[in-house]
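Holo model, NAP. Inputs:
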Amino acid sequence: MFQENIFQGMIKPMDEGNAPQPCSGKTVVITGATSGIGWQAALDFARRGAYVIGVGRSAERAAQAEQRIRAAVPRAHIGYVLADLASQAQVRRAATAIRARLQADGFTRLDVLINNAGTYAGKLILTEDGFEQTFAVNHLAPFLLTQELVDLLAASGDGRVLTTSSGSHYRTWLNLRRIHHPRLFNGLWAYKTAKLCNVLFSAEFNRVHAALPVRAFAVDPGLVNTEIGFKQTDWLSRTVWHFRRNGGTHPEVPVRTLLTLAGMARAELETRYNHQGELPIYWKDSQPKTPSRAARSRNLARELWALSSRLCHPGAA
Ligand SMILES: NC(=O)c1ccc[n+]([C@@H]2O[C@H](COP(=O)([O-])OP(=O)(O)OC[C@H]3O[C@@H](n4cnc5c(N)ncnc54)[C@H](OP(=O)(O)O)[C@@H]3O)[C@@H](O)[C@H]2O)c1
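Output:
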């Protein structure tokens, strides 16, 4: 098998030796599937026989992403749904479109939801809903999309919600009072706190939905050579990223962790519970890792969940 190397534009053999669990026949939704880690995930899941729905915000980039996957995997089951995840209305419409597409293809379940789309912004941008964009795209969108699709994930009987977090979450804490509309803005701080939210969300999802056969995990991709630092950023951030990303891995490295968690059967997951009877929810390089102290705070996770519910359902109490 061959795989496109997005860095040098070369074709290199796929590393089947490290290939995690098979995903054949699984239904998988991946946000941010037009570039970087998300595109690589769409390719690698499609290559392993999964039915993949990618979510992208640009029709042109989505078409190009799909074309590149079909060129590499002619028999791929792949399609794209369009949504700017900064808009809650569009997140809801994406969920409806995903549901319709699955149904049209005869599926009544969703096995894996990968909340991967992420953004870093150099300045304060408010979304149409009035929320700081980094928080809205990186945290509120996964929260809302997951809630909108949770019944389909439960119908899987062994559903997974995988959210791309970051090791940068170790270097921050969370003040929930104005996180959605900060008075003072720092792009890096906003990014790190949103990535901390990804871990808290995954932990609280498992508590809130303990009765459902769906489990959530946060994935730390490590430093990965992608375009993320070149979008919506100032010249300084672009310059720093230009050099920093060279030390990053190929996106196929974090995708292995996504494949591992997606393919691990429930019985196998149950062997991973720790001494306190908790499922390890933060994973890097296909292994569990202890997240930051803040990320392990139950109170913080509960408060974030309550805030997110209010912000995504303004009519609710
Ligand atoms: N690269 C790293 O070293 C690193 C490290 C830790 C964590 N991460 C996380 O990994 C995830 C993937 O990032 P990446 O490095 O692969 O960067 P990337 O190549 O820029 O991919 C980000 C993806 O998210 C999409 N996206 C951004 N804003 C969106 C919006 N408003 N609506 C819909 N889609 C949107 C992008 O779409 P477009 O193609 O239209 O831009 C793109 O497909 C992110 O959550 C990031 O925080 C990355």
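Residues 2-312 form a domain with the Rossmann fold fold (CATH 3.40.50.720). Residues 167 and 222 are 7 Å apart (CA to CA).
Archived with the compound record.
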